[in-house]
Amino acid sequence: MNKVLYALLSLVMLASCADSYTIQGTSNVSALDGRKLYLKVDQADSLIDLDSCDVVHGQFSFHGTIDSVKVAQVFMDDVNLQFPVVIESGNINVKLNNTQQRVSGTPLNDKLNDFWTKFTQLRNQYGEIDHEESAAILNGHDEETINAQLIKKALVVYEKGDKLFTKFVTDNFDNVLGPWGFLTRISYDTTPNAYPVWMNDYMYAYALNQLPSWVEYIMTKATDKFKNNPQVKAFYTNFQQTQKEMNGTAEPATTSPEASGTTTNPDITPPTPAQMAGDSVH
Protein backbone atom coordinates (compact mmCIF):
# COMPACT_ATOMS: atom_id res chain seq x y z
CA MET A 1 0.00 0.00 0.00
CA ASN A 2 2.81 2.39 0.93
CA LYS A 3 4.53 1.62 -2.36
CA VAL A 4 1.38 2.51 -4.27
CA LEU A 5 1.00 5.80 -2.41
CA TYR A 6 4.68 6.60 -2.98
CA ALA A 7 4.30 5.90 -6.70
CA LEU A 8 1.23 8.12 -6.94
CA LEU A 9 2.95 10.95 -5.06
CA SER A 10 5.95 10.64 -7.37
CA LEU A 11 3.70 10.93 -10.42
CA VAL A 12 2.01 14.01 -8.99
CA MET A 13 5.36 15.64 -8.28
CA LEU A 14 6.64 14.84 -11.77
CA ALA A 15 3.47 16.24 -13.34
CA SER A 16 3.82 19.41 -11.28
CA CYS A 17 7.44 19.86 -12.38
CA ALA A 18 6.52 19.20 -16.00
CA ASP A 19 4.02 22.07 -15.92
CA SER A 20 6.41 24.65 -14.47
CA TYR A 21 8.81 27.07 -16.10
CA THR A 22 11.71 29.13 -14.85
CA ILE A 23 13.27 32.03 -16.77
CA GLN A 24 16.72 33.13 -15.67
CA GLY A 25 17.72 36.44 -17.24
CA THR A 26 20.87 38.52 -17.44
CA SER A 27 21.50 42.02 -18.77
CA ASN A 28 24.55 44.27 -19.03
CA VAL A 29 22.37 47.34 -19.63
CA SER A 30 22.84 49.54 -16.57
CA ALA A 31 19.64 51.49 -17.34
CA LEU A 32 17.61 48.35 -16.63
CA ASP A 33 18.93 47.94 -13.10
CA GLY A 34 16.24 48.65 -10.56
CA ARG A 35 13.49 48.59 -13.18
CA LYS A 36 10.55 46.21 -13.02
CA LEU A 37 10.02 43.72 -15.82
CA TYR A 38 6.74 41.99 -16.64
CA LEU A 39 6.03 38.78 -18.50
CA LYS A 40 2.80 39.26 -20.44
CA VAL A 41 0.63 37.11 -22.71
CA ASP A 42 -2.44 37.77 -24.83
CA GLN A 43 -5.65 36.47 -23.34
CA ALA A 44 -9.18 37.34 -24.48
CA ASP A 45 -7.85 40.24 -26.57
CA SER A 46 -5.97 41.83 -23.69
CA LEU A 47 -2.57 41.50 -22.06
CA ILE A 48 -2.29 39.79 -18.69
CA ASP A 49 0.72 39.49 -16.40
CA LEU A 50 2.14 36.02 -15.86
CA ASP A 51 4.83 37.26 -13.51
CA SER A 52 6.96 40.29 -12.66
CA CYS A 53 10.40 40.87 -11.20
CA ASP A 54 13.02 43.54 -10.52
CA VAL A 55 16.36 43.71 -12.30
CA VAL A 56 19.06 43.58 -9.61
CA HIS A 57 22.72 43.85 -10.60
CA GLY A 58 21.92 42.64 -14.09
CA GLN A 59 19.96 39.59 -12.90
CA PHE A 60 16.24 38.84 -13.09
CA SER A 61 13.98 35.82 -13.07
CA PHE A 62 10.42 34.74 -13.79
CA HIS A 63 8.77 31.51 -12.76
CA GLY A 64 5.35 29.91 -12.62
CA THR A 65 3.13 27.11 -13.81
CA ILE A 66 1.40 26.75 -17.16
CA ASP A 67 -1.72 25.02 -18.43
CA SER A 68 -0.69 25.43 -22.09
CA VAL A 69 2.31 26.59 -24.09
CA LYS A 70 2.17 30.31 -24.99
CA VAL A 71 4.33 33.00 -26.54
CA ALA A 72 4.89 35.85 -24.09
CA GLN A 73 6.53 39.27 -24.33
CA VAL A 74 8.87 40.92 -21.87
CA PHE A 75 7.79 44.42 -20.82
CA MET A 76 9.59 47.11 -18.85
CA ASP A 77 6.76 48.84 -17.03
CA ASP A 78 4.32 49.49 -19.93
CA VAL A 79 6.94 49.35 -22.69
CA ASN A 80 7.21 46.23 -24.84
CA LEU A 81 10.89 45.29 -25.18
CA GLN A 82 10.07 43.38 -28.39
CA PHE A 83 11.50 40.20 -26.94
CA PRO A 84 9.28 37.13 -27.44
CA VAL A 85 9.67 34.10 -25.17
CA VAL A 86 7.89 30.76 -25.39
CA ILE A 87 6.44 29.82 -22.02
CA GLU A 88 6.93 26.08 -21.96
CA SER A 89 8.04 23.54 -19.39
CA GLY A 90 11.70 23.76 -18.43
CA ASN A 91 14.51 26.14 -17.61
CA ILE A 92 14.69 29.08 -20.01
CA ASN A 93 17.69 31.39 -20.33
CA VAL A 94 17.36 34.99 -21.48
CA LYS A 95 20.00 37.61 -22.36
CA LEU A 96 18.89 41.21 -22.79
CA ASN A 97 22.10 42.94 -23.83
CA ASN A 98 22.89 45.69 -26.30
CA THR A 99 24.95 43.39 -28.50
CA GLN A 100 23.02 40.17 -27.98
CA GLN A 101 19.39 39.36 -27.26
CA ARG A 102 18.91 35.65 -26.88
CA VAL A 103 16.45 33.12 -25.49
CA SER A 104 17.39 29.45 -25.15
CA GLY A 105 17.10 26.33 -23.04
CA THR A 106 13.93 24.69 -24.36
CA PRO A 107 13.11 23.29 -27.84
CA LEU A 108 10.61 25.93 -28.97
CA ASN A 109 12.67 28.79 -27.56
CA ASP A 110 15.70 27.59 -29.51
CA LYS A 111 13.57 27.67 -32.69
CA LEU A 112 12.16 31.08 -31.81
CA ASN A 113 15.61 32.51 -31.10
CA ASP A 114 16.97 31.37 -34.46
CA PHE A 115 14.04 32.97 -36.27
CA TRP A 116 13.98 36.21 -34.28
CA THR A 117 17.72 36.74 -34.70
CA LYS A 118 17.43 36.42 -38.48
CA PHE A 119 14.33 38.61 -38.59
CA THR A 120 15.98 41.36 -36.56
CA GLN A 121 19.02 41.26 -38.84
CA LEU A 122 16.78 41.71 -41.87
CA ARG A 123 14.90 44.63 -40.30
CA ASN A 124 18.21 46.28 -39.48
CA GLN A 125 19.17 46.08 -43.16
CA TYR A 126 16.49 48.66 -43.96
CA GLY A 127 18.31 51.03 -41.61
CA GLU A 128 21.58 50.30 -43.37
CA ILE A 129 19.99 51.10 -46.74
CA ASP A 130 18.66 54.34 -45.24
CA HIS A 131 22.18 55.30 -44.14
CA GLU A 132 23.46 54.48 -47.61
CA GLU A 133 20.86 56.81 -49.11
CA SER A 134 21.79 59.67 -46.77
CA ALA A 135 25.49 59.27 -47.53
CA ALA A 136 24.86 59.27 -51.28
CA ILE A 137 22.79 62.45 -51.10
CA LEU A 138 25.48 64.17 -49.02
CA ASN A 139 28.03 63.20 -51.67
CA GLY A 140 26.00 65.01 -54.30
CA HIS A 141 24.32 62.09 -56.06
CA ASP A 142 20.92 62.58 -57.65
CA GLU A 143 18.29 61.74 -55.04
CA GLU A 144 15.73 60.25 -57.44
CA THR A 145 18.32 58.01 -59.12
CA ILE A 146 19.79 56.82 -55.80
CA ASN A 147 16.37 56.10 -54.30
CA ALA A 148 15.33 54.04 -57.32
CA GLN A 149 18.50 51.96 -57.00
CA LEU A 150 18.17 51.46 -53.27
CA ILE A 151 14.49 50.53 -53.45
CA LYS A 152 15.64 47.48 -55.42
CA LYS A 153 17.92 46.54 -52.53
CA ALA A 154 15.03 47.02 -50.09
CA LEU A 155 12.87 44.68 -52.17
CA VAL A 156 15.55 42.00 -51.94
CA VAL A 157 15.46 42.33 -48.15
CA TYR A 158 11.67 42.08 -48.20
CA GLU A 159 11.78 38.88 -50.27
CA LYS A 160 14.25 37.34 -47.81
CA GLY A 161 11.83 38.19 -45.01
CA ASP A 162 8.99 36.63 -46.96
CA LYS A 163 10.91 33.36 -47.31
CA LEU A 164 11.95 33.46 -43.66
CA PHE A 165 8.35 33.83 -42.43
CA THR A 166 7.01 31.25 -44.88
CA LYS A 167 9.47 28.58 -43.75
CA PHE A 168 9.03 29.43 -40.07
CA VAL A 169 5.24 29.27 -40.18
CA THR A 170 5.00 26.11 -42.31
CA ASP A 171 7.64 24.34 -40.20
CA ASN A 172 5.63 25.11 -37.05
CA PHE A 173 2.02 24.61 -38.13
CA ASP A 174 1.29 22.29 -35.22
CA ASN A 175 2.87 24.17 -32.37
CA VAL A 176 2.40 27.65 -30.89
CA LEU A 177 5.09 29.23 -33.07
CA GLY A 178 3.14 28.76 -36.31
CA PRO A 179 0.14 30.94 -35.41
CA TRP A 180 2.40 33.43 -33.64
CA GLY A 181 4.66 33.78 -36.70
CA PHE A 182 1.66 34.08 -39.02
CA LEU A 183 0.05 36.90 -37.02
CA THR A 184 3.38 38.61 -36.42
CA ARG A 185 4.04 38.81 -40.17
CA ILE A 186 0.58 40.28 -40.74
CA SER A 187 1.05 42.81 -37.94
CA TYR A 188 4.38 44.03 -39.32
CA ASP A 189 3.20 44.24 -42.92
CA THR A 190 0.06 46.19 -42.04
CA THR A 191 1.80 48.75 -39.83
CA PRO A 192 2.10 52.23 -41.42
CA ASN A 193 5.45 54.03 -41.32
CA ALA A 194 7.29 50.74 -41.05
CA TYR A 195 10.22 51.82 -43.20
CA PRO A 196 12.59 54.83 -43.51
CA VAL A 197 10.63 57.88 -44.70
CA TRP A 198 11.92 58.04 -48.27
CA MET A 199 11.08 54.39 -49.03
CA ASN A 200 8.04 53.99 -46.79
CA ASP A 201 5.22 54.75 -49.24
CA TYR A 202 6.53 52.34 -51.86
CA MET A 203 7.50 49.51 -49.48
CA TYR A 204 4.32 49.78 -47.40
CA ALA A 205 2.14 49.59 -50.52
CA TYR A 206 4.23 46.69 -51.81
CA ALA A 207 3.88 44.77 -48.53
CA LEU A 208 0.10 45.28 -48.45
CA ASN A 209 -0.16 44.13 -52.05
CA GLN A 210 1.82 40.94 -51.39
CA LEU A 211 0.10 40.00 -48.13
CA PRO A 212 -3.21 38.56 -49.44
CA SER A 213 -1.51 36.00 -51.68
CA TRP A 214 0.82 35.02 -48.82
CA VAL A 215 -2.12 34.53 -46.45
CA GLU A 216 -3.91 32.31 -48.98
CA TYR A 217 -0.73 30.32 -49.63
CA ILE A 218 -0.28 29.64 -45.92
CA MET A 219 -3.92 28.68 -45.42
CA THR A 220 -3.78 26.33 -48.43
CA LYS A 221 -0.79 24.51 -46.91
CA ALA A 222 -1.96 24.70 -43.30
CA THR A 223 -2.92 21.78 -41.09
CA ASP A 224 -6.31 21.59 -39.40
CA LYS A 225 -4.71 22.38 -36.05
CA PHE A 226 -3.30 25.62 -37.42
CA LYS A 227 -6.57 26.61 -39.12
CA ASN A 228 -8.51 25.99 -35.92
CA ASN A 229 -6.28 28.17 -33.77
CA PRO A 230 -8.75 30.76 -32.39
CA GLN A 231 -6.70 33.82 -33.40
CA VAL A 232 -5.88 32.45 -36.85
CA LYS A 233 -9.50 31.46 -37.40
CA ALA A 234 -10.78 34.89 -36.32
CA PHE A 235 -8.29 36.68 -38.54
CA TYR A 236 -8.99 34.52 -41.59
CA THR A 237 -12.76 34.93 -41.26
CA ASN A 238 -12.34 38.69 -41.20
CA PHE A 239 -9.78 38.55 -44.02
CA GLN A 240 -12.12 36.60 -46.30
CA GLN A 241 -14.97 39.03 -45.60
CA THR A 242 -12.72 41.98 -46.43
CA GLN A 243 -11.56 40.36 -49.67
CA LYS A 244 -15.17 39.75 -50.72
CA GLU A 245 -16.08 43.37 -49.98
CA MET A 246 -13.14 44.56 -52.07
CA ASN A 247 -14.23 42.30 -54.92
CA GLY A 248 -17.81 43.52 -54.68
CA THR A 249 -19.18 40.09 -53.81
CA ALA A 250 -20.28 40.93 -50.27
CA GLU A 251 -21.79 43.83 -48.32
CA PRO A 252 -19.55 45.52 -45.73
CA ALA A 253 -19.78 43.83 -42.36
CA THR A 254 -19.52 45.52 -38.98
CA THR A 255 -16.46 44.16 -37.23
CA SER A 256 -14.74 44.91 -33.97
CA PRO A 257 -10.96 45.35 -33.71
CA GLU A 258 -10.77 41.98 -31.97
CA ALA A 259 -12.11 40.18 -35.02
CA SER A 260 -8.85 40.52 -36.88
CA GLY A 261 -7.03 38.41 -34.35
CA THR A 262 -4.20 40.94 -34.30
CA THR A 263 -4.93 43.58 -31.72
CA THR A 264 -1.43 44.97 -31.29
CA ASN A 265 1.27 46.14 -33.67
CA PRO A 266 4.88 45.68 -32.52
CA ASP A 267 7.47 48.37 -33.11
CA ILE A 268 8.97 47.82 -36.54
CA THR A 269 12.65 47.98 -35.69
CA PRO A 270 13.23 46.13 -32.41
CA PRO A 271 15.17 48.55 -30.19
CA THR A 272 17.92 47.54 -27.82
CA PRO A 273 17.13 47.21 -24.10
CA ALA A 274 19.15 50.36 -23.44
CA GLN A 275 17.05 52.33 -25.90
CA MET A 276 13.88 50.97 -24.32
CA ALA A 277 15.11 51.97 -20.86
CA GLY A 278 16.06 55.49 -21.89
CA ASP A 279 14.07 58.68 -21.59
CA SER A 280 13.65 58.84 -25.39
CA VAL A 281 11.12 56.02 -25.46
CA HIS A 282 7.60 57.12 -26.39
Automatic annotation (TrEMBL):
Organism domain of life: Bacteria
Membrane-crossing residue ranges in chain numbering: none
Keyword terms of this UniProt record: Signal
Residue ranges of every copy of the DUF4369 domain listed in the record: 21-112
Region entry Disordered, spans: 245-282
Compositionally biased region (Polar residues): 245-261
Recorded coiled-coil stretches: none
Protein name: DUF4369 domain-containing protein
Signal peptide start-end: 1-18
